[in-house]
Write a structure and sequence with these properties.
The protein has 312 residues and is mainly beta. Helix content is 12%, strand content 63%. The chain contains three helices and eleven strands. An eight-stranded antiparallel beta barrel has the order 1-4-5-7-8-9-10-11. The longest helix is centred in the first third of the chain and has 21 residues, at 2-22. The protein is rod-shaped and about 115 Å long. The two termini are 71 Å apart.
């Protein structure tokens, strides 16, 4: 009897062990992976190069008579024609190659999907020849038996020597390494513009004994650092740890510039030697605004806290 019970107990034990071996085993889930290091947060520096072209290349010059030879009606008419001839539209050129550098700081937040930052940059501008000439003829005006022809050449030069910006940036990460962003803020630049006016009385060459007035010249310049605004957008790609490449478009506006083009004083020739036949004051104005397209590369120091990384 005891032997039968022992055999039965052994069989039950063996059966329980077999059943236990067939039951599924439960393991604790693996720990979540550590978040990747911050890709965008922190300081960065870089270089850029590209091109710029102006939106407003015209330079407007307007003139008005302020004096004429007293008591001579023909001098009044000559002053009016002189002012008319010294008014016109010419062109300058603020287009060219640009190159420079930038420095900035980024914050990555909102689950790692948004990147906000500030950036400052400065670029030199290598522009092409910026001198343009506009020639106008003010028509014939009769004096005694001659026809006085007033011909005017207006020569202008317009340059953008350098341009920089201080901007905010706000972007969206489509992938952890691809950022599209908008940007805007302050723009500044070194500008220079000049106007030269040369005026001739054609009749003085043909009839020196009978012409009313001789040639006259005036000029004016403006050079300064202008401050305005800028806005644009770009795309930046983190192509390897700590390194990114970007392409960017910016529109800038440094405002209007108005300056004196000088006093155009026409002296008497044969008939009125040494006298001021006509005095004309001239003013020029233009606008410095345009477009920038550039590419650049940045090195990121990643001096910031690791973001909360979303699942892309």
């Amino acid at each position: 009897m005891k032997r039968a019970l022992s055999v039965a107990a052994l069989m039950v034990a063996l059966t329980g062990s077999a059943l236990a071996a067939d039951l599924p085993s439960y393991k604790a889930p693996p720990p979540p992976p550590l978040p990747p290091p911050p890709l965008w947060s922190g300081f960065y520096v870089g270089l850029n190069a590209g091109g710029t072209w102006g939106n407003s290349n015209n330079i407007w010059t307007s003139s008005a008579p302020i004096s004429s030879l007293p008591g001579v009606g023909a001098a009044n008419l000559y002053a009016a024609y002189s002012a008319l001839g010294a008014s016109g539209v010419s062109q300058g050129n603020t287009s060219g190659f640009i190159g420079g550098g930038q420095i900035g700081y980024n914050w990555q937040f909102w689950g790692g999907r948004l990147v906000a930052g500030v950036e400052a940059d400065i670029q030199g501008v290598a522009s092409s020849n910026s001198n343009k000439t506009s020639v106008t003829a003010a028509g014939a005006f009769p004096f005694i038996a001659a026809s006085e022809i007033v011909t005017t050449a207006i020569t202008t030069s317009k340059r953008l020597d350098y341009i920089g910006t201080v901007r905010g940036r706000l972007g969206w990460l489509f992938t952890p390494t691809m950022l599209v962003y908008g940007t805007g803020g302050l723009a500044y630049g070194g500008v220079s513009v000049s106007t030269g006016i040369a005026q001739f009385n054609n009749d003085c060459a043909q009839f020196p004994a009978g012409c009313l007035a001789s040639s006259a010249f005036s000029s004016g310049t403006f050079s300064d650092t202008r401050v305005g605004w800028t806005a644009g957008a770009g795309l930046e790609w983190m192509f390897m740890p700590n390194w990114s490449a970007k392409v960017e478009y910016l529109y800038y506006d440094l405002g209007n510039v108005s300056y004196s083009a000088g006093l155009l004083t026409t002296l008497g020739n044969t008939l009125f030697p040494g006298s001021v036949v006509a005095g004309v004051v001239s003013q020029s104005q233009t606008r410095f605004n345009g477009n920038i397209v550039r590419a650049g590369v940045n090195y990121h120091f990643n001096w910031g806290n690791a973001p909360i990384v979303a699942k892309y």
